[in-house]
Amino acid sequence: MTYTPQTLDHSRRRFLIKTGWLAAGVTALTSCSGLIPVLPTTANPKDEDGSSWIQILADGRVRFLCPRMEMGQGATIGLSQIVAEELGVTQDQIECLAPDSDQLGPFKMTVGSEGIARFSGPVAMGAAGLREHFRQLAADKVLLPFDQIEDAAGGFTAAGNFIGYGELVPDQARIIGAEYRADVVPRFADRNGNSRAIGKSWKSPELKNIVTGQTIYSRDIAVPDMLYGDIVRPPRYGATLKEAINRGAETLPGVVSVVIDEANDLVAVVAKSPFVLADALEKIETTWQSSPDEIPDDILDVSLYRTRGDFEHSLMDEGSARSADKAAIAVTSANYTTSYMAHAAMEPRAAVAWVREEEVEIWCGCQDPYFVRGRVAALLKRDQKEVVVHPLRMGGGFGGRVLCQPAEEAAVLSARVGMPVRVQWDRETEFQHNYFQPKFSHAIDSGLDEAGHIAFWRHDFVSSPIIFGLVPSPFASILDAFVADEGTARGADMPYDVSEHKRVRYSDIRTGIPTGAWRGLGAAPNTFAIESTMDELAYSAGKDPLAFRLSQLENNGGNSKRLSEVLRRVGKMADWGKSVDKNLGLGVAAAVYKDQTFVAVVAEVRIDQQREQISVTSLWCAQDCGLVVNPDQVENQVLGNLIWGCGMALKEKLTFNEGAPGQLNFDSYEVLRHVEAPRTFIELVETPGAPPVAVGESAFAPAVAAIANAAFAATGKRPRQLPFDYDSLQIQ
Amino acid sequence: MIKLNGKQVPVSKDLYEISLLDFIRDQVLLKGTKYGCGQGLCGACTIHLDGIARRACQLNVADAVGHEVTTIEGLAGTSGETGSDDLHPVQKAWIAEAVPQCGYCQPGQIMTAAALLREKPQPDADQIRAGMNGNICRCGTYERIHRAVARAAREDQS
User: Fold this and answer.
1) What residues of chain A, 641 to 660, have a C-beta less than 8 Å from chain B?
2) A249 and A186, same domain (yes or no)
3) Residue A531 sits in the same domain as residue A643
4) How far apart are CA A293 and CA A235, in angstroms?
5) For chain B, which residues make up each domain, given as ranges?
6) Residue A316 resides in a domain
7) Which residues contact A295 (CB under 8 A, 6 or more apart)?
8) pTM for the whole thing?
9) ipTM of this complex
10) By the number of CB atoms within 10 A of the CB, which of A44, A66, A141, A643 ranks highest?
11) Interface with A, mutate which of B33, B139, B149 (most A CBs under 10 A)
């Protein structure tokens, strides 16, 4: 069947049914039964949650069951500093643990750079409540009034005598927690510049273990008597198993079980040794069938929808189109495209599952252990209470580890063999069977009035669902009828003044390619289109791009001020306006991430005419992220964001062929490497009194756009499609 | 026998054809050497074979029989410093610069850096970048890695 855009139906769901892609899923094992699908854990933390996370041990040390999963973002460190601030303890007095799923009630999945922004408040309340509880214990012990018990490092002083927390733990008790108290005042919220821990660059307590190879990641866990399993996974999204013929896999030494369950699309081998798995799977011949239709590569093309004005969601439509068109004198129209991209975390995922009659145990790294728990319980038809997830550090996440598919695979195999089973994905599986950042296709029309202000801004785009990307069908089609995916639209509301008409419309279309959270969600694609257009407007008006942006930030109150401030700051840092070599170009871009983090980036790009190469030589970044709990951690996050900006601008692209990715390893899916890494200059601007906000994804989006704008400055050719290189810009 | 981190490890012949990386991780149970790509593209599994940085996923066990293999767990022992708490100068520099984010690629980065510095004790900035280029860090800590390698070179000199 050949796909022709002209036959595209207005209802995407009918279209998808017609082409048979509705049943596509992430893996063969995602078909959990039940009327209501298991969903990720999305409830935000409340102040009262904090009291269950923090306890004092018998020796006076603090146990912090950290409700954030660590994958390198450093949230466990920053939150430990909040605990330390409230309890007046040092870093070595805190034992920060990743809680097992039966130790704490469900907490929100670790996404969205919310570790400090959303959890610092509840952590501070919990720790402060515990402090006041201990102050009462101290008062009772020394028979002095509560208000005569003064704060001291590691405890209190009463009438000049020190009382450590450990002395206040009753003899029989091993651990003391405290009830939630709404009346306590965290020091965190009432800080007068004399913090013990907040604002200090604590280093990760895991550093020494990391550099000596002692840190335990998901791939490193071993359980006594563990067996090793692997699965034949479908070669194409939505493919189902037609036939599996075993040609003697069970005869190989060490093979314990060969599983062929055609009804459940399951072909697997379990063995005593991991070394025999590949050979054993080779001996099983599988045939898969899938819909004859291919996903058309060009369905995510904004032009197809724009001609009919056929967009599912209107993010905003303010002002009058007619008066805007009248006012505009300089007009720019352009399309921008970004590619499908993979998380490509360095650690391909893995898990160990042990299914027993009384309990199911899972060891894995995951951004949402309670989601894993729910999915495994549904898969095994067990009560969630019988499933315990032991979370481990992840070797990178970037949004890609909300699911842990090997945990589900291992659980199914362990249930069959009655022993603990380890399943590890290889790099190719990691590329093929996870979900992806969707492609984005944008069209922006904009015009300036006589005074040089933006008169109108009309931004249309199409992409795929991100936040709801993993919702299985048929629930997805019900959900899509009512809900606009905010993840796809992240960053789509541009921060500049528009005098007459501002309209943003979009469609989030399911294509059969699994899509989901990826660093910053829609922010980088949307910002690339917005900030490229801002650059086009500046050049069309003959204005300096940085001065032009500042001139469009006058009417949006505090947000405009904070964005202006980082723009001015980054201009100073980069010595914006200096004359540069003709092979160099400087570009600027700015963005507000999640309406809270203000970032501006200047990029310097070098064009090597001889080698026909474009490289990013320097990046300057000024970021206002409010209160900075740990400057070194934040700077490391910004550094990572800037490197991702280079990768998205110049390298990363995933293509699909017959429902499978065309790139399965780092030779074809290229990420930035050492020699390509630019010099970076990072400054954090702290607006007094501003709370801590998201930093894990904030600098990424403007970095991408600044690099594209710098390439234009250097070559006069504007990158309209990412990634771009010397050839695609047609420089010669 | 393979001399692994200074100790002779017996190897049965039926394991000769498996990758050295699998052998180190799942037979010897040293988990510090990481699997990243299985194709020699990312450097996460970098070890030293007779002092030279090699990708363990691209070697078979047979390639290492009769040779000396050093993994991240044994690196400190090769620095000539004594005492169980001592770290290799490169590991110390990694801590001083607080390089890691997720940390997964860092054992491989450190092994490459240590071999680089053995070969070129005072590399310039371009030599550091070129020498490290086979190791991917998806978190993007490259600049801190460069600083750490330069620091290790500097402190080794002093």
Assistant:
1) 641-644
2) no
3) yes
4) 15
5) 2-74, 83-157
6) yes
7) A19, A21, A511, A512, A513, A656, A659
8) 0.94
9) 0.98
10) A643
11) B139
- CA torsion angle for A478, A479, A484, A485 (degrees, to 10)? -130
CA distances, A512 to each of A121, A303, A404, B65 (Å): 40, 21, 20, 48
Beta strands in A579-699 (DSSP E): 584-593, 597-608, 613-624, 656-657, 660-661, 679-684
**Residue A540: inside a domain, yes or no?**
yes
What does the pLDDT read at residue A657? 85
The string of pLDDT tens digits covering residues A15-37 is 222 233 333 334 444 433 444 67
Q: Do A657 and A623 share a structural domain?
A: yes
**Alpha-carbon gap: B151 to the closest alpha carbon of chain A (Å):** 15
The string of pLDDT tens digits covering residues A385-426 is 999 999 999 999 999 999 999 999 999 999 999 999 999 999
Number of domains in chain A: 3
Measured distance CA(A450)–CA(A454) in Å, rounded:
9
The DSSP secondary-structure symbol of B60 reads B
Q: Which of A274, A424, A677 sits opposite B142 (nearest CB)?
A: A677
Say which residues have a Cβ less than 8 Å from residue A572's Cβ, sequence separation at least 6. Answer: none
CB A643 within 8 A of CB B145: no
B contacts of A222 (beta carbons < 8 Å): 29
Q: CA-CA distance, A670 to A344, in Å (whole number)? A: 10
- Taking the C-alpha atoms of residue A64 and residue A128, their distance in angstroms, rounded to an integer, is 13
Strand order from edge to edge, sheet including A94-97: A94-97, A62-65, A54-57, A175-176
Question: Is the CATH number 1.10.150.120 carried by domain B83-157?
Answer: yes
Identify the CATH number of the domain defined by range B2-74.
3.10.20.30
* CATH number of the domain bearing residue A268: 3.30.365.10
Residues A138 and A253 in one domain: no
In a domain, A720, yes or no: no
